[in-house]
Amino acid sequence: MSKLPTAAVIGLGSMGWGAAVSLLRAGITTQGVDIREDVLEAFAAKGGDSHACVSDACAGADVVLIFVVNGEQAEDVLFGAGGAVAAAKQGTVFVTCVTMEPSRAVDLAQRIEAAGMLAIDGPVSGGSAKALTGEMTIMAAGRAEAFDAAEACLDAIATKVYRLGDEAGKGSQVKMINQLLAGVHIAAAAEAMTLGAKIGLDLGMLHEVIQECAGNSWMFGNRGAHIVEGDYTPHSAVDIFVKDLGIVTGEADTHPVPLSETALALFKEASAAGMGREDDAAVAKLLATKGGITLPGMA
Amino acid sequence: MSKLPTAAVIGLGSMGWGAAVSLLRAGITTQGVDIREDVLEAFAAKGGDSHACVSDACAGADVVLIFVVNGEQAEDVLFGAGGAVAAAKQGTVFVTCVTMEPSRAVDLAQRIEAAGMLAIDGPVSGGSAKALTGEMTIMAAGRAEAFDAAEACLDAIATKVYRLGDEAGKGSQVKMINQLLAGVHIAAAAEAMTLGAKIGLDLGMLHEVIQECAGNSWMFGNRGAHIVEGDYTPHSAVDIFVKDLGIVTGEADTHPVPLSETALALFKEASAAGMGREDDAAVAKLLATKGGITLPGMA
Description:
Helices cover 55% and strands 13% of the residues of chain A.
């Protein structure tokens, strides 16, 4: 493509912000949308075009990336009053990067295409640090024309773009399985570190050694550090996993997912205890309280 | 040390075999002990000294590495009739590489030292492939004299030797936490792959993509491949995790370990269904059967 597309990013949370900044770094004119004034100011300071209004941002965009929190919000920004689809020009590519029920991803893609647009079912993974550096992984499904038109934008935000099929749904299915593992691994990291503290192990040493052993996971490395430091500043919040593991258990229906159910119960209990907006590693504080011990960062 | 020590390895299972072969490769004279005739023949063919009898193997050894299956067996080969401690010369270093209750590791080390020997509480991790190449990780605790005398042997079998303290127990504590994570991660991999199959995902693709995402774990990469290939040849068996997660829940006592309990219940159920000696990834077949689907390698 000789001319770079114009992008819009709807939702400048931790992942959307990283995507928007990565688009700017690639020289792509980018419209950013959020409801938070301070975030819009910060985005303008980075050289982006800031909008409080979805339809304004989407009017001139070639590629619209949706980074809102859940499927309901995605449906609302796409098709609600002042929504993106009605405002966009024909042929615009909509990339839904939100973790949602695969069945909903299929439905939204069909409605986007029925409106004369192109759709990519494209949830992302990698965490906020990799989002910032344009090194996310995208689990994507959609037609070849959509990928062709969105290529420059996807390459700007991700080092791995998996094309999982022509039809929407496969991206959200793989993301759902990823979230099953991620949620169980966070809860397992919390259980491991809390039991380690209970039996008197030094948590920093435990965190270091396990990362060289077969018990390691991406989440143990990442969230384990939050537990060692007692830092529960939310990169991804407890309530995200109440949502995502709820999608897993809901879509699994009668299929057995006992570990997902056990982890979901912990995230729900942590949320009910007032930790819903803390970092998801806060399930460790829940387990510590139940076990009668004190972790770093606990009063 | 100008002169290399003589080593004995008791138990030539997947990890012990790898350790014994790595010792030979380092030029260390190594006595191997096993009850299986074919394994002893294979070890002799590699240049080792094969013994069916523990006391014969330990009489001339400077360092004895114990790689039997569990704490009961370790106690038996150390202190039972024809045991290693009675046969060894004063000052021999005994390295217990077996996963066992931390309290038992402390007890064995105290009895080893009371007999005039040196003790290292040194469980290992890394899997059979890394054992074969001398790249295990050792979680070790013991006195400086013991580490000095065993150094050449430990360096021959491991790329990482963590010294976790002067007193026995810390090694087994860290290993127990590692097994908590490993067991939960194997069960989570089984749950993820089985749900993926249920919703129609290609398992090879799912396994590849997740390894680039935040849902990855060492076990998902390693055991997930067994599930994709339908190969349940035991590298580490279901019954090992019945034992190891049983240690976790037993030592945790009243401290909450809900994910360990959920995973343990799955391994127990798989063992009761006749899969105890299959690869631990066989919990996937249990979940598949419960969910009414067929994985690769299932009839």
